[in-house]
């Protein structure tokens, strides 16, 4: 099914689009919230600061648009900052997120051997079964770049964890709304598996 | 547990061709960059750095058509450097599907650009390349313009300044060691890695896994190489190679 990618002026749309096309899935970039009603799958990318993301979502009208889409019950996936924006808040700024899941993002605690951002390849540890994780094996690796990580209020929303100076949340799900902290579009075959699962679930 | 060490092939491009200079000069044409990107993608490399080595020197703009082709074949993070002089150019390149912008000449000649790009794209997308050469009198000198212009800064000072300006990652490149297969300049790598908190990528001189391990032990967060991954054997024939994941994971410093 066609995956619509939200263009709100942030995030690497080209990479997501390129990978969806490579795995044979239809993808389109949507620049107007009015286009969301006809969308079957919605992907919210995002790179950069939390408050900038919130501001862009609100100014483009996508904040309400994405909330309405989520209420429709159709699959929504946030990537990186796009996942953090699904929550209520972040230590990175003072703006209110989309509030589709309770909780917020916290900064990694830097240590002598812990450089921030967490940048590079790391493996994820699924904590429950999920259609998005179908075919993701134990020796998986995904590409991460982030300084903040989400802490959901409800532990039942945690789908997968990863380890960087301690466990942190790498994937979340609440009903039809899911998020990935890593970049599937830059994670070779493992990323393709997750995006294919999303497009086909 | 921390992230896996990153092992990064560096492709040097000149006028649309993949080239292999030695010690920053004497280019040798070795093939089609897109083909190389395709092969590296199939090998599922951790990350890729593509540097257009004459864009900065000749003052030409980034080759957007080439960058677009690279982005559509690379399903791993890609850093691009060469001829980026405005934040608008940087935004356009990242919009195509490139994750990081590498600055060298501009970082020294128009340092405000580093800050501008970091504010626009985030520090983790802003990489400064510190190209250093040993001074005959001792210590190191940092160069810009493909090792042709002295900046007057030591690599440690250049690195600190780049980070203050907003760089989120540094490539530390030894001009003396490029394509020599004589190992990284570990003293250089260690001095910069100690001086900054951002990740440091070691480049220049790698001959194999032992050199990777040594650079990681010296404080590098990632190791990069050009010749090692594209040239092979005594006659330096073109052959694209890359270590397996098990070998890469075994490099993690203790």
Radius of gyration of chain A: 15 Å
Taken together, the total number of domains of chain B comes to 1
Number of helices of chain A: 5
User: CATH architecture of chain B, please?
Assistant: Alpha-Beta Barrel
Structural class of chain B: alpha/beta
Class from secondary-structure proportions of chain A: alpha/beta
Q: What is the helix/strand order of chain B?
A: EEEHEHHEHEHHEEEHEHEHEHEEH
Radius of gyration of chain B: 16 Å
Distance between the termini of chain B: 11 Å
Q: What is the total tally of β strands of chain B? A: 14
- Domain unit count of chain A: 1
- In the CATH hierarchy, the third-tier topology of chain A is known as Rossmann fold
Sum up the overall morphology of chain B in one term: globular
In CATH terms, the superfamily of chain A is: Class I glutamine amidotransferase (GATase) domain
Strand content of chain A: 25-35%
Segments of chain A where pLDDT lies below 50 for 5+ residues?
none
Oligomer: heterodimer
Which bin fits the share of residues in helices of chain A? 10-25%
Percentage of helical residues of chain B?
A: 25-40%
Family (chain B): Belongs to the HisA/HisF family.
EC number (chain B): 4.3.2.10
Pathway (chain B): Amino-acid biosynthesis; L-histidine biosynthesis; L-histidine from 5-phospho-alpha-D-ribose 1-diphosphate: step 5/9
Protein name (chain B): imidazole glycerol-phosphate synthase
Structural descriptors:
heterodimer, A: 201 residues, alpha/beta, Rossmann fold, 8-stranded mixed β-sheet, 3-stranded mixed β-sheet, 5 helices, 13 strands, 24% helix, B: 254 residues, TIM Barrel, 8-stranded parallel β-barrel, two-stranded antiparallel ribbon, 14 strands, GATASE (chain A), lyase activity (chain A)
Task: Give a short overview.
The complex is a heterodimer of chains A (201) and B (254). Chain A has one domain: Rossmann fold.
Notes on the structure:
The complex is a heterodimer of chains A (201) and B (254). Chain A has 201 residues and is of the alpha/beta class. Chain A has helices at residues 13-22, 50-60, 62-71, 81-84, 188-200; strands at residues 3-6, 27-30, 41-44, 76-79, 89-90, 103-107, 118-122, 125-126, 142-146, 148-152, 158-163, 167-174, 177-180. Chain A is 24% helix and 29% strand. Chain A has an eight-stranded mixed beta sheet, sandwiched between helices. A three-stranded mixed beta sheet of chain A has the order 5-6-10, with no helix packed on it. In chain A, strand 11 (158-163) and strand 12 (167-174) form a beta hairpin. Chain B is an alpha/beta fold and 254 residues long. Chain B has helices spanning 33-42, 55-58, 64-73, 87-96, 105-109, 112-121, 155-165, 186-195, 209-217, 227-230, 245-249; strands at 6-14, 17-19, 29-31, 48-52, 78-81, 100-103, 126-134, 140-144, 149-150, 169-174, 200-203, 222-225, 231-232, 237-238. In chain B, strand 8 (140-144) and strand 9 form a beta hairpin. In chain B, helix 1 (33-42) packs parallel to helix 3. Chains A and B meet through helix 1, strand 7, strand 9 and helix 5 of A and helix 4 of B.
